[in-house]
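[#protein-structures] MJ: dropping Activator 1 subunit 5 here for a structure pass
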Amino acid sequence: MDKTTNLPWVEKYRPAHLDDLISHKDIISTISRFVKEERLPHLLFYGPPGTGKTSTILAIAKQIYTPKELSSMVLELNASDDRGIGIVRGQILNFASTRTIFKSGFKLVILDEADAMTKDAQNALRRIIEKFTENTRFCIICNYLSKIIPALQSRCTRFRFGPLKTDQMIPRLRHVISQEGISVTEDGMKALVTLATGDMRRALNILQSTSMAFDEVNEENVYTCVGHPLRRDIENIVKWVLNDGFKEAYSNIVQVKMAKGLALQDILTEIHAYIHRIELPVSVRLQLLTKMADIEYRLASGASERIQLGALVAVFQNARDLIVQETL
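AK: finished. structure tokens for Activator 1 subunit 5:
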């Protein structure tokens, strides 16, 4: 039985070579040159999740080392591993300080999600990086550059991995779709890319879960699977809160939420985007956005969804009265 059949598609289709990576061509060409000339510096990859940071360094490791050498020449530590000051002074120091007898060149230490490391651990790491540069290279990966101390940043060559563009994601998604033999409509593909917001990992996870739950991956099935409100649901909600009475609008939204399992936070995010697309007086739009920001803050603080939904309907009822006053 093929070992890859039970793998999540994120791992099954993870690029194995630098040539397979679909984005950041300028970064990859620069690093390829470093590898060819055997002048790889310490690296710092930063950017949002699912943009190819870990895939890039793993592809580099596979290019530099043979499969047999990988385990002895590469040390990979993730946020799930303990990476406090004890591990930095123990495991990482031991790995970096020992030379290999049978293999010339350098070892590679990959510290994934390094923004979760404590300041003390990062401070302990900077001396090790400096001391063992001759036989060890470090690759630090993080989502937020600001959480890495300046002393570590200055010792590494920094590369920013931005969110992937639509035209970069679609060919890769089409490749996975053809390999897996699933049925995907054009609006389904658009929904995948919209919900992923430049995160390739998220796009593949949504594609896999939707294809397992439904026979066809179309817009409605994708949104249903993720539990995200459909565009027409948002249009209906805005129509109710602007045209119907408080009680009727409130009960209609509760019914939609219950029937489709929607979270008020998601509804709020989509309404925010929708408000920018419709014609409203500037003063009304400003008030709506301010009040919705307050509701979102209260939701994030753990307030009751039912009460905040009432507040949302009330905000739009007030806005409706303001629109009437402005037109008079």
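MJ: nice. The mean pLDDT is 87.
AK: one more thing. The chain is about 60% helix and 10% strand.
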